[in-house]
Design goal:
487 residues
Length: 487
């Protein structure tokens, strides 16, 4: 594929984002940057959250993982659906009742200032590591298949991507992101559908036969009942529910757009609609994965393997789309990957800025002019862009996928303390010892990480999966409970 043609397509896509940013960011003040002036349409937020939830890693990894994991991922998605109900009926009413901009302000009111700062710091670390890892993996695909052919170093490739994201997010904040995410979610969804169509066309089968092949494939098995395995239904369902509560409902990055809606009713309608769309889109991703492996087998194309002869799941889809399905499929793949990557990374800069600005620096409580606030806001925004770039370059220097996956797993564990802190605030009437919050919040993820590493030895073959997030939160909750006093 001609790299110059791909770059031209990407530049056109970027110009669309800049155009949206120019229109939406005019006259943006603190209220517009943080909450979109409370004028965001709920249907735009619901659709835009799709791209925010499905990162470039999801775009690549979910189809690629079908060979080993079958449709077991769908069990997790069912759990997401239950978690979104909790967000809609419990968390959103709380956030709207307190008129929050940063959701971690709730911890400051309910438990104390150290709890607020702890929640914010855990969010900052989680999102910085998570966004850095996801952007590294997605940018690596674009670099390897496109920019590397022009002898452009990886560091330059990533720097360009970060600068492009910075250009259209710096001024408008949430007001801009609501609408750029609509564009990116639309392109992402279209890319999945067109990728399925491209494979169907190359396999020379009809729509009915395609559906039949997917349904009857051995990799379409969905439910698993061996309780010792990670894929056990109840592990994944409960883990999915807790994951969606923690990584959506207790995550500033996901909640800030919801808080930009006019009313609680619109925010609840947004989450309910989003939960249905997520189930459908993930079913498309898994179906795409089945078709990809069927095409490899039918066309006798060798699967990408590592040194030990195992399939490399994250290279299965890129290899097929960029080297075997023709230019149309290649462009669709690049656009889908770019949309997923930009959508999951651009909002991170705005929400990291929000949490640091409000929870750490307390700038919203200071008497400063709008011009001074804008300077601070822009400085923090740029600072996090540089920090994100450094995280990605560190991942590249490691040059070890196993280490990167471990770091991403650790980043996921840091949502456990947020789960424990918020659940204690909501479910308990006792007064927590605020000074102990940082210690419990540090200890719980470490204990859970050790358990995950040695669970087979400790528990006679039992493997911890997504339920570890719940245990993480439970440890924090227990620590707060046993050191608390009656209110």
């Amino acid at each position: 594929m001609d790299p110059f043609f791909v770059i031209a397509v990407l530049l056109f896509y970027f110009l669309l984002l800049v155009g949206i940013s120019w229109i939406t960011s005019r006259g943006a003040d603190d209220n517009a940057y943080f909450l979109g002036s409370k004028k965001s349409p709920w249907i735009a937020v619901a659709f835009g959250m799709l791209g925010d939830s499905l990162s470039g890693v999801t775009f690549i990894s979910v189809p690629g993982a079908v060979e080993k994991g079958d449709f077991s991922y769908l069990q997790l998605v069912f759990g997401y659906f239950a978690g979104y109900f909790v967000i809609s009926e419990i968390l959103l009413p709380l956030y709207y009742k307190m008129n929050l901009t940063s959701i971690y302000s709730y911890l400051g009111v309910r438990i104390g200032p150290k709890a607020e700062k702890t929640g914010s710091v855990f969010f900052l670390i989680s999102r910085l590591l998570g966004a850095g890892g996801r952007l590294y993996l997605a940018a690596g695909v674009i670099h390897y298949f496109v920019l590397k052919q022009l002898n452009i170093p990886f560091s330059i490739s990533v720097s360009i991507i970060i600068i492009l994201i910075l250009v259209y997010t710096l001024k408008g904040g949430i007001r801009t992101l609501v609408w750029t995410d609509v564009l990116q979610s639309g392109i992402l969804l279209l890319a999945v559908i067109l990728s399925i169509y491209a494979i169907q066309k190359n396999m020379e089968i009809g729509f009915g036969e395609m559906v039949s092949r997917i349904a009857n494939d051995s990799n379409s098995t969905t439910f698993f009942w061996d309780w010792t395995q990670k894929s056990f239904f109840f592990k994944m369902f409960i883990g999915g529910m807790l994951t969606s509560i923690a990584m959506t409902g207790l995550d500033q990055n996901m909640m800030q757009k919801n808080l930009s809606l006019k009313t609680l009713g619109e925010a609840q309608k947004n989450i309910r609609s989003f939960s249905f769309v997520m189930m459908i889109v993930n079913l498309f991703f898994l179906s795409l994965g089945v078709l990809i492996y069927q095409y490899y087998a039918q066309s006798h194309i060798p699967l990408p393997l590592n040194a030990t002869g195992d399939v490399i799941p994250d290279k299965v889809f890129p290899e097929l789309a960029l080297n075997h399905l023709g230019s149309f499929a290649g462009i669709v793949f690049i656009l889908g990957l770019t949309a997923a990557t930009f959508s999951s990374a651009d909002s991170v800069l705005t929400t990291l800025t929000t949490s640091f600005y409000i929870d750490i620096l307390k700038m919203d409580q200071q008497s400063r002019s709008e011009q001074e606030k804008r300077k601070w806001r822009n400085g923090i925004h740029i600072g996090f862009a540089i920090a994100l770039l450094l995280v990605i370059l560190i991942f590249e220097a490691m040059n070890n996928d196993a280490i990167i996956n471990t770091i991403l797993t650790v980043a996921a564990y840091t949502y456990g303390p947020l789960l424990g802190l918020f659940f204690f605030g909501i479910l308990s009437k006792r007064k927590a010892n605020d000074s102990l919050v940082p210690y419990f919040s540090l200890a719980a993820p470490v204990i859970c990480y050790i358990l995950s590493m040695y669970s087979k030895s400790f528990f006679d073959g039992y493997e911890f999966g997504y339920e570890l997030l719940g245990l993480n939160g439970l440890l924090v909750y227990a620590g707060l409970h046993f050191t608390s006093e009656k209110a």
